[in-house]
Write a structure and sequence with these properties.
mainly alpha, two-stranded antiparallel sheet, single chain, Rossmann fold
Length: about 800
């Protein structure tokens, strides 16, 4: 028998203790139903070692009985303050959606999500409940580790020491014996393959033995991995972040164990700052306890950009719960694996782009734009092979790189959500950024800005896309505030402010350009081009926010500065004069506005010629303000003449040609032909829809004007129906607080009153006034118009009620 251990005597039939270092204790007298004890091991069990996959020349002699239950490998100890999570129910079969019939569960998630702890909890509870005869825990980081564990398991289930027998120490042969045993045994077994790095390690490629555990009704398999490959067998269980409640409960318990009591709001804020990642929470709690920091003090260090993630977690020797790596190092191996997937070498540079953008959602068009593709080509990870040097990279390559990150759980890629196609944990972003030198990070930030600007459509038809682009620009600016001011302010900064205004967030646009102007002055002084441009945009949105007089004054001051700094014929000087004339009219000086446009037109004709777009637009504004000054019929005639020139120069479908038709229709109504205006708007709307699409803001404005002139023509019923449909679309496209949505509500209330329901109109306008005051403020022109309309319908209601009483 050599060194083989004997079994028998008075201890025969008693379960063995778990092997040394397993962290498990055999569950006493193991009396699970249908499980024979060691004295009743069948002859079939004695012959297990002779089972083969392929041909084996060696046949083992009979062996001593194997004591059951058995465990192989070291199950990680349970983490302090372990949180029971939904994934644990999925493993145990108690979750409503898990299905207890599943023989293999794959726990998939990013590094640090707690997959190993969930698998260990399941293994431990199954063992302690007597639910398995064999527990095999495999740290499956590579094929060699799996083969070694299977060889140990083969020895355990046969009661042999194969390594001592000549010709039987081949790990592949030992693994084959174990898998054959698992396929044919009546014993219950649980195999945990922890941290599978590459599914290919377990797949029988090139004639190699397949190492996936077999499908057997008495066997169960649990796999933990960062991979989300479709080829992974079994039922996938996505392991995400802690919930808010789990995060707070974990930190509270972890601190309480050290007699630390913290305010729940501070604990919740710390959990939020760490993105509720279990690994980060564990290491942060240990760090702040070791250094006697409060949650608030730790948060301050976390927000300090001078500190890196390795500075904010314990040293390797002090990591909690047997963690093998710090937060930052946890993802490093995943990036290396992702970079080896096709298209090779693109995952890392793609993750670098993602690291500077909004973690809550990045549009796919940003990451597949020409600037992004150029970055991937220039920074492709060397040494990965599988590509020709200098070979161009296309949008499909970029999309495939995103899938690589998705497969390794470094990012979530959802192609069906194009405006938020990519999401990523903020700590993954920070760990990635911190690997880059400052100069490389700044260059990357400018590339991201180029990508955002390139992906930004000239006309914002899609409000969700515009919202996502603004969020990503804000995230980029927060990550690299100085990089976008290297020589000039990056144009995406101005585009963001205008987008806020076009979305109806005019107050936010004003604030944005105030900040932009202050930053421009710090970088280049008040006379630099960026500061002047910021003043120009600030003045415009100040007027759109309701302060027309303030806008006119700001443009007047800016005009004087630009005349001095740039000269009278500079394009910016002329643009400012254009805006000055407009806001003079909006402030109530229609005649002054007309005079300003007349003078500007003279200079434009001298500099650009009569057919230049600037001349045509200036003519349109001149006609408009002459109409506002009292010459409605002249305005209608003027737009008719201007339309002929637009058709000749720009064609019928040019946006400015359509705008001229818009002006012509409006002034036809203002000159007394309401029915003709309604007809003209109906024809115009058909062309707007064809050229711009149904959700374009200009189309929504045209629909509002059509409803207005229908009401003025006496068709209140059709006008009310049109306003109702418009309101539904405005709420969907623009949101409830956009000025155009509020205007549609006011038009609907006006139609309601015109149809005889003065009380209903009054009630609707009273509700609307609260929103006007909240959104636009008491001094905005639209608020004043709504206030006057409310007063009119209140008076009508009072007169009607008074008449009834009399």
């Amino acid at each position: 028998m050599g060194g083989r251990r004997r079994h028998g005597g008075r201890d025969a039939g008693k379960p063995s203790a778990a092997g040394p270092g397993t962290g498990l204790t055999a569950p006493g007298a193991h009396t699970a139903p249908n499980v024979p004890d060691a004295t009743s091991v069948t002859a079939r069990d004695h012959s297990i070692a002779a089972l083969t996959i392929g041909r084996l020349d060696y046949h083992a002699p009979p062996r001593a009985p194997v004591p059951w239950p058995r465990s192989v490998g070291i199950v990680p100890r349970q983490a302090d303050c372990f949180q029971h999570r939904a994934a644990a129910d999925a493993l145990s079969g108690t979750a409503a959606t898990s299905g207890s019939e599943a023989l293999c569960h794959v726990l998939s998630g990013t590094g640090g999500a707690g997959k190993t702890q969930l698998a260990a909890h399941h293994a431990r509870t199954t063992w302690e409940a007597g639910g398995t005869d064999l527990l095999v825990w495999v740290t499956a980081t590579d094929r060699a580790a799996v083969l070694s564990a299977y060889a140990e398991a083969a020895a355990a289930v046969t009661g042999s020491d194969d390594a001592r027998r000549p010709g039987t120490d081949d790990p592949e042969r030992a693994a084959a014996r174990f898998l054959n045993w698992a396929q044919s045994t009546d014993r219950r077994w649980l195999i945990v393959l922890d941290d599978v790095a590459d599914p290919a390690d377990l797949i029988g490629l090139g004639g190699r033995l397949a190492l996936w555990p077999p499908t057997h009704p008495r066997g169960r398999t649990v796999v933990t991995t960062r991979r989300r490959d479709a080829a992974l067998p079994g039922r996938r269980v996505d392991v995400g972040l802690f919930t808010h409640a789990e995060s707070v409960a974990y930190l509270t318990a972890k601190l309480a164990a050290q007699d630390r009591r913290e305010d729940l709001e501070d604990i919740a804020a710390l959990a939020r700052d760490l993105g509720r990642l279990p690994l980060a929470l564990a290491q942060a709690a240990t760090y702040l306890v070791d250094l006697h920091l409060s949650c608030a003090e730790y948060r301050a260090r976390l927000a300090d950009r001078a500190r890196t993630l390795p500075d904010l977690v314990p040293e390797d020797s002090g990591l909690p719960d047997a963690h093998r790596a710090t937060v930052a190092a946890t993802w490093s191996l995943s990036v290396e694996h992702a970079d080896r997937l096709r298209p090779r070498g693109l995952a890392r540079p793609m993750l670098q782009l993602i690291a500077l953008l909004d973690p809550n959602g990045i549009p796919a068009t940003v990451l597949t734009s020409p600037p992004a593709l150029a970055h991937l080509l220039a920074h492709r990870t060397p040494g990965q092979g599988g590509h020709r040097p200098g070979h161009p990279i296309g949008t499909e390559d970029a999309a495939d790189a995103l899938r690589c990150l998705h497969r390794l759980s470094l990012a979530d890629h959802t192609p069906g959500a194009p405006h938020q196609a990519v999401r990523v944990h903020a700590l993954v972003q920070r760990a990635t950024r911190e690997t880059l030198p400052a100069t490389a990070r700044d260059a990357l930030a400018r590339t991201c800005a180029d990508a955002l600007f390139t992906a930004w459509p000239d006309t914002e038809r899609d409000t969700a896309l515009a919202r996502a682009l603004r969020a990503n620009t804000a995230a980029l600016t927060a990550c690299a505030p100085g990089a976008l001011w290297e020589s000039r302010a990056h144009p995406v900064l101005f585009r963001t402010g205008d987008s806020l205004g076009h979305a109806g967030l005019v107050t936010s646009a004003v604030t944005h350009f105030q900040d932009l102007h202050a930053t421009a002055c710090r970088h280049g002084g008040p006379a630099n081009a960026d500061a002047l441009q910021a003043r120009r945009r600030l003045a415009w949105w100040r007027g759109m926010a309701g302060d027309a007089a303030g806008a006119a004054l700001a443009y007047q001051e800016l005009s004087a500065d630009e005349l001095r700094l740039l000269g009278p014929d500079h394009a910016d000087t002329l643009d400012t004069r254009h805006a000055l004339a407009w806001w003079r009219g909006m402030a109530g000086d229609a005649a002054g506005a007309a005079t300003g446009f007349e003078e500007l037109l003279t200079d434009y004709l001298r500099l650009l010629g009569p057919d230049h777009l600037h001349c045509l637009v200036t003519r349109g504004n001149l006609i408009h303000w002459r109409g506002e000054a009292g010459d409605a019929l002249g305005a209608a005639t003027g737009f008719e003449e201007l339309l002929a020139d637009h058709l000749r120069v720009l064609g019928p479908d040019h946006a400015d040609t359509l705008n001229v038709r818009h002006g012509r229709a409006w002034w036809r109504g203002a000159a007394g032909d309401a029915a003709g205006a309604a007809t003209a708007f109906a024809h115009l709307l058909a062309d707007y829809l064809r050229v711009l699409g149904p959700d374009h803001p200009t189309v929504l404005t045209a629909r509002s004007d059509l409803a207005h002139w229908r009401a003025e023509a006496g068709d209140a019923a059709h006008a009310a129906a049109a306003y109702r449909e418009l309101l539904t679309d405005s709420l969907r496209v623009l949101g409830p607080d956009h000025p155009n949505t509020l205007h549609a509500r006011r038009g609907l209330a006006r139609c309601q009153g015109a149809a005889g329901d003065a009380a209903g109109a009054t009630a609707a306008l009273e509700e609307l006034m609260a929103d006007y005051l909240r959104v636009l403020g008491p001094d905005h022109a639209e608020t004043a118009n709504a206030r006057a309309e409310l007063a009119r319908w209140r008076a009508s209601t009072e007169n009607t009620n008074g008449g009834d009483v009399g």
